[in-house]
Amino acid sequence: MGHLIPMVELGKLILNHHPSFSVVLLTLIPSFNPASTASYVRHISHTFPAITFHHLPDIPLDTDLYPTMGAAMFELFRRSATNIEHALQSISLSSHITVFIIDLFCTPAMTVATKLNIPVYSFYTSGACCLAQYLYFPTLHRTTTGSFKDMNTLIHSPGLPPIPSSELPSPLLDRTSAVYSDLLVFCEQLPKSAGIIVNTFDSLEPKAIKAITDGLCVPDQPTPPIYTIGPLIAAGGDGSHECLNWLDLQPSQSVVYLCFGSLGLFSSHQLKEIATGLEKSGQRFLWVVRTPPSNNKMDRFQPPPEPDLDLLLPEGFLDRTRDRGLVVKTWAPQVAVLNKDSVGGFVTHCGWNSVLEAVIAGVPMVAWPLYAEQRLNKVVLVEEMKLALPMESAGGKVSAAEVEKRVRQLMEDKGIREVAMARKEEAAMAMSDGGSSRQALANLVASWCCSLSSHPFLFDF
Ligand code: UDP
């Protein structure tokens, strides 16, 4: 969803500003995906009929063979190259495809489209800092030998603060893994795009954007133009959720919100530590709690069942914190939550959509990264953007005392709140008429040959 939603939002953005275009989303919804993906696609088809979907046939995969959802997605698209070619050919029968915009997992689609003479743009749904890291990764790969996870050193990449080697995006850590090779191919192919669209805005990540546009991240070949068209985030969500009424009753900027993306899960021990830390902090809180990960491999890619709070949380916790805390099971309408006046802080796993949603709402963060490129995002959020405090862990575990300390610090730190409010204003400016992101969108569309204004666009997820 963290890839599909921004792609849909990009389609909406293009259609809003250039209504003469049509957008087709080429999607592959594998059988192991949660049902929510298919229902989201149905929802968009219903509410935004200008975007049409072209579904690729599913390819059955033995998901046991793939350690992560990302590894399975790379394999799916590798095996879908012929289907993508057929889809492009079939659409070309009735319309001219002006441009093909592909997601990170869809590298094989680049070869197919190039063969058919269709210009390919990449849409990078995380930030420019991570993009800079990925563009520079082939150079790092060539100039090192071991795995980054074993190095215990600082990685110096153009446009980025020094990143501890262990904090690089998780697929880059183990040189012997299949997903490392998949990412390397993706990173090598990226500069071959006709352009790279990034979900960020200029004043949020100026150093990384400059390093990319100056060509420092890809020293051995030209860097394509990059288009910083963000921040794009999902529209509103469920406005009737009970937690929104509860937030309306709390004082301004008094509540810390804890939520860890669509995939973040904790052990029952870690959940108890968080609960104890929250209770001792004395702060108001809204906490999204999920059932701990299943030991059954078959369940890995499925959303967990509804949590049993009495079993998972310390005895009496819910009663003792009843007047100042709310625990929500599994899912909260995050965008609406972050925009409530009572929310004053966000403990986040640093997924890029969550980061942008907090930036747009002007909410400072505590960074508690869990997977993918979130550790790198944490370093950038803390060291570079000064938008987050770090949640320190020991051996992957965070103590109740650390939760208590960081939550209190976040809610009392006026400096970090001012930085968050300044970025909020800049984000709004970037997206307003004449702002940097609007200009980037105009430049992007101008690069797609103006004479073809009535022809369809095709996106791939
Ligand atoms: N989200 C939500 N409620 C939840 C958990 C997540 O609305 O309880 C949304 C969140 O607003 C964001 C997306 O799910 O838009 C998660 O994307 P992100 O990039 O932050 O993390 P990912 O899930 O991809 O790791």
From TrEMBL:
Is NAD tagged as a keyword? Answer: no
Per UniProt, which keywords does this protein have? Glycosyltransferase, Transferase
Q: List the GO molecular function terms.
A: UDP-glucosyltransferase activity
Transmembrane regions listed in the UniProt entry:
none
Its family remark reads: Belongs to the UDP-glycosyltransferase family.
Would you tell me the protein name for this molecule? UDP-glucuronosyl/UDP-glucosyltransferase
- Species of origin reads Cynara cardunculus var. scolymus
Whole-protein coverage range: 1 to 461 of 958
